[in-house]
Amino acid sequence: MEMRSVLVQKLKQIMDCNEKIVIINADLAKAAGLAEIISRFPKRCFNVGVAEQNMTGVAAGISSYGFVPLIFTFAPFATRRICDQLAVSVCYARQNVKVFGLDPGISAEYNGGTHMSFEDIGVLRSIPEFVIFEPCDTIQLEKSLDSVVNHNGAVYIRMFRKETPKIFCEDYDFDLFGSDLLKVGRDITIFCTGIMVEESLAAGKILENIGISAEIINIHTIKPIDKKTIINSAKKTKHIVTAENHNVFGGLFSAVSEVLSENYPVPIGAIGICDKFGQVGKMPFLKKYYKLTSEDIAKKAKEVLAR
Amino acid sequence: MEELLKLDEICKKVRRDIILQIGMLGVGHAGGSLSVVELLVVLYKKYMRVDPKNPKKAGRDRLFVSKGHSGPAVYAVLCDMGFFDHSWLETLNKPGTRLPSHCDMNLTPGIDMTTGSLGQGLSCAIGACLGSRLNEDHAKIYSILGDGELQEGQIWEAAMFASHQKLSNLMVFIDYNKAQIDGLVSDVCGIEPLALKWRAFGWDVLEVRDGNSCSEIDATISGAIKSEKPCAVILNTIKGFGVSFVEELEVENHSMYITNEQMKEAVKELGF
Lengths: 307, 272
Prior knowledge:
The complex is a heterodimer of chains A (307) and B (272). By secondary structure, chain A is of the alpha/beta class. Chain A is built from 11 helices and 12 strands. The longest helix of chain A has 15 residues, at 3-17. Chain A is globular, with a radius of gyration of 19 Å. Chain B has one domain (2-269): Thiamin diphosphate (ThDP)-binding fold, Pyr/PP domains (Rossmann fold, 3-Layer(aba) Sandwich). The mean pLDDT of chain B is 97. The two termini of chain B are 23 Å apart. Classes of the chains: A alpha/beta (307), B alpha/beta (272). The interface between A and B is medium-sized, with 31 and 34 residues.
């Protein structure tokens, strides 16, 4: 099942129970799969057209009226395009807006460089109190949405729209301000997020085959980050790799490095976009081009261990 | 007539309080605060259903001051309405103040939206109109825009969406004082034909010949209130109106220094 289908099913339940939830999108209702929601809740769904800045202000205004707006567009337009509106009308004004940024990083695929957000986490991470969350599979998305909607404040949901590999089981327990220990290890920790969770798990197997025990932790919430888990895992393995579908400047590598440099400095290697722009292509090609594959992660782990 | 005379008296008091706020600090946005005094006084005294004892009251009318740098004018009127004590006015922009230069809904009772980054307030007002429609509370939503602010693209995104949504509970005022930081609006980046622009975006448009006249503003609002479309009211105002030394500075009065002597002189000029 696609991520957007799970999103819509869960949103239907949430909106049935909570009449304060409204949906605003900027001409991407079809892309986000929102048609069913719009036909079920026509009065609570608004399409502002191709006008993301206005969408954000409208969201802030309806939030000031006591509603909880969920806004939808592609990740770059949900972040860099509306950075000032998010900073002032939403966050500084303390409005309760949930921002869905669709198809982040290389998952923009054939939309190419203009749509390939390698900077969205960095843009938002410097705005105070913004919660930045990236679900990695349908179960995590489904389990997270109540917490996301109930959190009183701005949340960015960095969301791939389509099918993902299954990472979690049905009995998974979600904590918006926690992280997920996916594999226990002793030699090195791989902190990963989004589509890089699958690659990191595969890298763990490659490393296991050569006698390296990797701990793998999904950092689903990049801000506020789960400092305690990061520090404790670093104390145990003393070697770190981060893996993200984002520029290594400003994203997960930066966030993990900030925590550890202040609390428990250890060698850290970064897998991510090394300060490059995006381009058109399918994900397997892009993963190879930007060195985001499981082999790249395993190689980086060996480099860090050799330091 | 008696009522209008009373409003004129309140305007003088509000002007005095603007000058005192900025004068006691020594610097501030005098020009664009003085130009909207009559509008704010007419709105709050005659039209807006608000409760100073319960500033967040559900279903109240709301004002989105998109030109957030007019804070000192809004504070003077809110103070006169009883939203907070007169002593607060001495704290404008001082450490720990609840009256910052630009309007902040989380600091000042009676402020309905945080503004200051120009171009954003109209979209927020539209969000409130939609909220009011969903709640069926029949609130009237007002917004004040600067003329230079109309150079922001987001204003026109919002204007298009408001008419598409047929927001008849939205009334927007344009403080057309013809000046912005770097000079005359017509020299920096002209916005004419202004009325035609708003009409082309699907709005009813009304013009107030003298935007610093309470009676003209009152007559226009009372006519516009029945509009079935969003309504834009263009107020031909004078930046710095009512205080000679500010008004005489023309395009230099956007943000300006005020000495103790000038402050005293202005208070005297206003009849206090």
